[in-house]
Design goal:
By secondary structure, the chain is an alpha+beta fold. Helices cover 52% and strands 13% of the residues. The strands form three sheets. It has a six-stranded antiparallel β-sheet with strand order 3-2-1-6-5-4, with helices on both faces. It is elongated and about 105 Å long.
């Protein structure tokens, strides 16, 4: 599956990457608190049997023991010294954790770990040279600076397998962004942030490829890791080395000493840890490679749009099923967190006066109920509600634009960036949903702005119906709720028709592209069906009134469009023939989209009724004009030679019967009820005849009576031959 078909961050979550070992978490906490003496260190290590065995083995190796071997942990620790202990605990914890990543055993990691160890030693020694208070933290940051590459290999082994061993430079980041929509620096920072460390470690990983001039005033740990990266990967680039050294205030001579010392330290550490780095320098590091762009970017865009529409349709179903305000709000925030990878989310609703947004309490976020944001005070959240457009707020880059309310939201959500999704129903904004995300994730969120707007419309539609219920009696509440659910079921039922057609056409499109055949006709139909899905979903929030001025409609053209739709999609079995006889005047009054919806439903039902029946036949026929109660209609007939309908089914044919089946069949009984409603919407009539020879639906639609219309007098009476 191409990366555009599945977001890489979802795949990182699905990959179930391991959590940081508890011994390493505790060690970092002690180091940052400066309360780690030998007794505390011994007590911490004694809780981990594997680590205890590792340290005892090193302490009793030929490099450390003098005359007698000691099995006592504290004596062994004294022999090693605190610096070596910290190095071994950090290194072994990281190696054991990340060697268990998915797919890590399918690729040669010697060069990866040698570069990582080199960066770790360089970062620790640079930290000491700078007088940085936590050199062990710098060691860990250097060791983890490229862990994002392991994460990407675990999540996307097919797409990233080649580039895992590629040269670690800016070209690699560009290729990662193009092929995976995320770089290894972003993936590494994302992974470390999930460990919730009180440290700039994630930032150091995120920015280690940034140009040195951008990091001049950054935190020392960020500058140290940048220097370690340059010295371990680009020591032959004098300009990069000079700039990185200037960041940390050291000269070229000191840098050369750091590199020489690191080489010896890496060999020693690898020996103690039992890691074989032999031949690591012989492993090639080719330039990063990006496969050619897709042959048909239009299909790629269509696939993404179809996927998003399916998701929006599912959201509509989910929200329509919620009971009560708290249930709906919880569902909204939970769904938004899943769809957009928000770390947390809250909802602010318009207060009764319409002058402010007030917090709506949800499960696990009760404090928000006392929060108020005046719309008149400005700020990005208020503007998002007033302008009805999503807003993207980053604390560091927009600090001068943020008011007290935005600062509170950032702290309340425990994040450095906000995504604001307005909840728009028709002309009214009911409120906003505010999600918390890391700053590096904002560009990805901005690329999904249209999807967020569609989600906001679905959520607002459900919310508007719920808010209307507040001011009515219980009977009125039940009625309004049932109407909305019915409307949702009908829209969902109707959306399934174009989605099924789109799915079939995508299969046809794949085959034609493989054969290098022209696909212009299929793309045109896909665009039409995508627009139709959007109109159907949008109808939940945008109830349009019919045009006051009647317009002519060529029924033959609509029938031709429907036949073209089914014939090219592969939906109709080879045993079934679909034909049309539309001779004569076919002008009627009405909306072509409504007539198309009617015919698609009827043809789809006929196809399902015929199944794989041999010599199946479906006909759409123009029977000419009919005079009914002094009104001239055009009669269209859709018939099939299927097994016919039972008397019981025929008696309840146009009633909204809910199927007893679950899943996709749950709304199948709505089809003919919807057809009946659509025919009435066109001021027409529909009847059904059925017997052993098949079933026919006879539709009377008002004939066009405007300029250029055929004379009404010759129309036959209803029921004549």
């Amino acid at each position: 599956m191409h990366q555009s078909d599945q977001d890489i961050r979802n795949r990182l979550l699905i990959a179930r990457l391991p959590a940081m070992p508890q011994i390493l978490v505790k060690l970092i906490e002690h180091l940052q608190a400066d309360d780690l003496g030998m007794p505390e260190l011994a007590a911490l290590i004694a809780k981990d049997a594997g680590m205890t065995g590792k340290l005892l083995a090193v302490a009793n190796s030929s490099a450390y023991h003098r005359h007698t071997r000691s099995a006592d942990l504290e004596q062994s620790l004294v022999a090693l010294g605190t610096d070596m202990i910290k190095t071994l605990v950090i290194s072994d914890s990281v190696f054991q954790t990340f060697n268990s990543f998915p797919h890590s055993n399918s690729i040669d990691l010697r060069a990866f770990w040698k570069h990582s160890l080199s960066a770790a030693v360089l970062a620790r020694d640079a930290a000491r040279a700078l007088g940085y208070a936590h050199p062990e933290e710098a060691y860990l940051a250097g060791l983890l600076h490229n862990v994002g590459r392991l994460a990407l290999l675990a999540a996307a082994p097919k797409e990233y397998g080649f580039n895992f061993t590629a040269r670690d430079d800016d070209d690699l980041c560009a290729v990662e962004q193009r092929t995976l929509q995320i770089t290894h620096t972003e993936a590494g920072a994302w992974l470390i942030e999930r460990w919730q460390l009180d440290s700039f470690l994630a930032d150091a990983v995120l920015y280690h490829h940034e140009p040195s001039e951008r990091l001049e005033s950054s935190h020392p740990l960020i500058r140290i890791v940048r220097l370690a990266h340059v010295l371990s990967h680009h020591a032959d680039d004098e300009t990069m080395v000079f700039d990185a050294c200037a960041l940390c205030g050291i000269d070229a001579g000191q840098a050369a000493q750091l590199v020489g010392h690191a080489a010896r330290q890496v060999e020693q550490a690898a020996a103690h840890l039992g890691i074989d780095l032999g031949g690591a320098d012989d492993i090639p590091s080719p330039p990063a490679y990006a496969p050619p762009a897709p042959v048909d970017p239009v299909q790629q865009r269509l696939n993404e749009e179809v996927r998003n529409m399916v998701l929006v349709s599912e959201v509509g179903q989910s929200l329509a099923r919620q009971q009560g305000e708290s249930g709906l709000l919880d569902a909204m925030t939970r769904t938004a967190r899943i769809l957009f990878d928000f770390d947390s989310a809250v909802v602010l609703l318009e207060n009764p006066t319409g002058q402010a947004l007030a917090g709506a309490p949800t499960f696990g976020a009760q404090r928000i109920a006392e929060f108020t944001l005046p719309l008149s005070k400005g700020g990005p959240v208020a503007r998002s509600a007033l302008e009805r457009r999503p807003a993207f707020v980053q604390r560091d880059r927009q600090r001068d634009q943020l008011g007290l309310a935005e600062e509170q939201l950032l702290r309340m959500l425990g994040t450095d960036s906000l995504v604001v999704v307005p909840l728009v129903a028709g002309p009214r904004c009911l409120g906003v949903l505010v999600g918390g995300v890391p700053g590096w994730q904002l560009p990805h969120c901005q690329r999904r702005e249209r999807f967020m707007q569609a989600f906001g419309a679905q959520a607002a539609s459900a919310l508007e119906n719920l808010l209307l219920e507040r001011g009515h009696a219980r009977r009125q509440l039940a009625s309004v709720t049932e109407e909305f659910r019915d409307a949702s079921r009908r829209v969902i039922h109707e959306v399934n028709n174009p989605l099924a057609i789109i799915k079939n056409y995508l299969s046809v499109l794949d085959g034609k592209l493989a054969r290098q055949e022209p696909v212009g006709g299929e793309l045109s139909i896909l665009n039409e069906e995508i627009d139709r899905v959007g109109q159907l979903i949008g109808s939940l929030a945008d109830q349009r009134t019919p045009d006051a001025v009647p317009r002519p409609l060529d029924a033959a053209k609509v029938v031709d469009d429907v036949l073209r739709l089914f014939r090219g999609s592969g939906y109709v079995p080879a045993t079934t023939q679909v034909v049309a006889r539309m001779e004569g005047d076919g002008a009627i009054e009405g909306d072509p989209d409504v007539l198309k919806q009617i015919l698609v439903n009827l043809v789809k039902n006929a196809v399902e009724a015929l199944g794989s029946r041999p010599a199946g036949r479906i006909e759409i026929v123009n029977r000419g004009h009919v005079n009914r109660e002094r009104q001239v209609y055009l009669e269209l007939v859709v018939s099939d030679n299927g097994p016919g309908l039972s008397r019981e089914v025929l008696a309840n044919l146009f009633s909204p019967v809910r199927s007893a089946k679950g899943g996709a069949d749950a709304n199948r009984g709505l089809g003919l009820s919807i057809v009946h409603g659509l025919v009435k919407q066109l001021d027409g009539h529909i009847a059904c005849r059925s017997g052993s020879a098949g079933t026919s639906f006879e539709i009377l639609l008002p004939a066009w009576s405007g300029a250029g219309a055929a004379p009404a007098l010759p129309a036959r009476a209803l029921g004549s031959a």
